[in-house]
Design goal:
There is one protein chain. The chain has two domains: about 270 residues, Aldehyde Dehydrogenase, Chain A, domain 1 (3-Layer(aba) Sandwich); about 190 residues, Aldehyde Dehydrogenase, Chain A, domain 2. By secondary structure, the chain is of the alpha/beta class. It has 16 helices and 21 strands. The longest helix has 20 residues. Strand 16, helix 13 and strand 17 form a beta-alpha-beta unit. The strands form five sheets. A seven-stranded mixed β-sheet has the order 15-16-17-14-13-18-19, with helices on both faces. It binds nicotinamide-adenine-dinucleotide. Nicotinamide-adenine-dinucleotide binds next to helix 8 and helix 9. This is Aldehyde dehydrogenase 5. GO terms for molecular function: oxidoreductase activity, acting on the aldehyde or oxo group of donors, NAD or NADP as acceptor.
């Protein structure tokens, strides 16, 4: 296939600058370009990228099609034998070094992320960069853990297993936490000896390219490639590509199903991290103040609720219900909604008009069906901001369990709060969605905590806390929340290697 990328604008990746480039320079460096084979290459077409807080077009991103995808996969395929042949600990050292280099450029990358996603720089973006770097450092130390086993099969036969890389891994990203999710996919893939083609989110591509460029400075050309473009064209071309040996996807349930079908068509392994409607159960003996803070952090209100693990169904024991609702409302009223780049801001914007319309549809439905809608905090009045994508943290009460707002992922700052009286019934209600990503339980009773953790159908259950993803802790959903795990050694071994059995008869 002829590769239709223009070489006129192609430029090699610049070596590490002594000082971190400014956020504007990072954005300027990735106008309509992909990262392919260690070079920035122009795509044949582009898409606008909008800063959600101002509505301003901050630039364009590549609208890659099959030709650009083909070039990226070819670069990854060409780089694979050399990368796979490198000692695993050396691969790991390079990946870890890239993690440390990301920390050196944290401030500029965080500004880019805040601009393109609308997430507040203080409460969200810097932390995302630190976690992304931590994931690279964590996996960078695991090169020597790519071990096989010996099997006591027959005394005159040496029987063993080895772990081999798969080849070219396609990693498809959403916009909400693109850097953490990128590193969760590509760090284990790379250390295991695979090369990668990342599909950036076309809505928030620049920080992804900039972080990948830092990795590219530490790796041989072509080991990490990034393309941007629409899901329907660029994403579909990548999942259908015959040289892609593994697909790892994070995004919505509907697209995840399409990606799974594309993998099935070629019989390649697929990992899916999809949506959620995670329950939070507050028992009568819970520490109220801790539980309220847990609801604020668990619902990811500072990320406008745009989180797959958001505690969006909050069940509070009837004895605590009024106090909890009052304290949570008062706490949310204190959050400052405003310019994502302002240090005073706690909560930025929704990502796009499309996402905003989806959230509003759910709220209209709730109101039409008689739910009580409690809007907290104040919308910003700064004339430099476009009010279109700002939304107040919102609580829904007096709503039926089978309502779409209780059953479906809204992916906005909207949490349902419902009272409960019977423990067995609330466990059943917590399990009554087709999702199973995460859950939290708030109680002073050890036996309630242990019982609930055993009975809740979710891949990540926490008691009296609400941590986000940790690199060394296995993470992934049950049911329609996904397939396979991310983070931890297990994810690297199970999802980015294949196991070979070798039997040597020495009789
Ligand atoms: P999305 O599914 O619309 O898009 C995700 C990515 O897939 C984007 O890069 C998109 O361009 C691409 N894509 C779209 N159609 C495609 C196709 N046919 N083939 C291949 N790729 C395609 O999701 P989004 O709106 O970007 O992100 C929000 C969703 O992500 C939410 O549902 C959320 O729950 C989910 N999410 C899950 C997790 C998790 O770990 N479980 C984490 C973050 C986000």
């Amino acid at each position: 296939m002829t590769v239709q990328t223009s070489t006129a604008q192609a430029a090699p990746i610049t070596p590490t600058a002594p000082t971190a480039p400014a956020a504007d320079a990072i954005i300027a460096a990735w106008q309509g370009l992909n990262l392919i084979g260690g070079e920035r290459l122009a795509a044949a077409a582009t898409l606008p990228v909008i800063a959600p807080a101002t509505g301003a077009e901050i630039g364009v991103t590549a609208a890659s099609g099959p030709a650009e995808v083909d070039a990226a996969v070819a670069a990854a395929r060409a780089a694979w034998p050399g990368w796979a042949a490198m000692p695993a600990r050396d691969r790991g050292r390079r990946v870890a070094a890239a993690g440390r280099a990301i920390l050196d450029e944290l401030e500029d990358l965080a500004r880019v992320l805040a601009l393109e996603t609308g997430k507040a720089i203080r409460t969200e973006c810097r932390g995302e960069l630190r976690t992304a770097a931590d994931i690279l450092e964590f996996y960078g130390g695991l090169g020597s853990e790519l071990k096989g086993e010996t099997v006591p099969f027959n005394p005159r036969m040496l029987t063993m297993t080895t772990r081999e890389p798969l080849g070219v891994v396609a990693a498809i990203l959403p916009w909400n936490v693109p850097l953490v999710l990128m590193m969760l996919k590509i760090a284990p893939a790379l250390v295991a000896g695979n090369t990668v083609v990342v599909k950036a989110s076309e809505e928030a591509p620049y920080a992804t390219f900039a972080a990948a460029a830092i990795l590219a400075r530490h790796l041989p050309a072509g080991v990490v490639n990034v393309v941007s473009g629409t899901g329907a064209v660029c994403g579909a071309a990548l999942t259908a590509h015959p040289d892609v040996a593994k697909i790892t996807f994070t995004g919505s349930e509907a697209v995840g199903q399409a990606v799974y079908e594309a993998g099935a068509a070629r019989i390649v392994p697929v990992s899916l991290e999809l949506g959620g409607k995670s329950p939070m159960i507050v028992c009568a003996d819970a520490d109220l103040a801790k539980a309220v803070e847990g609801a604020v952090s668990g619902m990811r209100f500072t990320r406008q609720g745009q989180s797959c693990t958001a505690s969006s169904r909050i069940y509070v024991h009837q004895d605590l219900y009024d106090a909890f609702l009052g304290a949570l409302t008062a706490r949310l009223d204190q959050l400052v909604i405003g310019d994502p780049l302002d240090e005073a801001t706690d909560v930025g914007t929704i990502i796009s008009a499309r996402q905003m319309a989806t959230i509003r549809r759910y709220l209209d439905l709730a109101e039409a069906d008689g739910a009580r809608v409690i809007r907290c905090g104040r919308l910003p009045e700064d004339p430099a901001l476009d009010p279109a994508l700002f939304m107040q943290p919102t609580l829904l009460t007096d709503i039926a369990d089978d309502h779409p707002c209780v059953q479906e992922e809204i992916f906005g700052p909207v949490a349902v709060i419902q009272p409960w009286a019977d423990y067995d019934a609330v466990i059943a209600r917590a399990n009554a969605t087709h999702y199973g990503l995460a859950a939290t339980v708030w109680t002073a009773s050890l036996s309630t905590a242990l019982d609930a953790t055993q009975r809740i159908d979710a891949g990540y259950v926490q008691v009296n806390q609400n941590l986000t993803i940790q690199p060394n802790v296995s993470y992934g959903g049950f049911g329609r929340s996904g397939l396979g795990k991310e983070a931890s050694l297990e994810a690297m071994l199970e999802h980015f290697t294949r196991k070979k059995t070798i039997v040597i008869n020495f009789d």
